[in-house]
């Protein structure tokens, strides 16, 4: 894997975790 691929996977992981944790906050 390249550094860019690793970065994207980490970014998506953090994005989905924060999205699921703060769903009500984002929708409001």
Give a structural overview.
This protein is mainly α and 28 residues long. The protein is built from two helices and no strands. The protein is rod-shaped and about 35 Å long. The chain starts with a helix and ends with a helix.
Descriptive labels:
28 residues, mainly alpha, 2 helices, 86% helix, 0% strand
Strand and helix map with partners:
Elements: H1 3-21, H2 23-27
Percent of residues in helices: over 70%
Q: How would you sum up the major sheet?
A: none
Could you spell the SSE succession in H and E letters?
A: HH
Q: How many H/I helices?
A: 2
Overall residue-averaged pLDDT value: 82
SS strand fraction:
under 5%
Low-confidence stretches: none
Task: Please compute the radius of gyration using only Cα atoms.
Answer: 12 Å
Shape: rod-shaped
- Tell how many strands the DSSP assignment holds: 0
Assign the structural class, choosing from mainly alpha, mainly beta, alpha/beta, alpha+beta, or little secondary structure.
mainly alpha
Compute the separation of the termini in Å: 38 Å
Task: Summarize the structure in short.
By secondary structure, the protein is mainly alpha-helical. 86% of the residues lie in helices and 0% in strands.
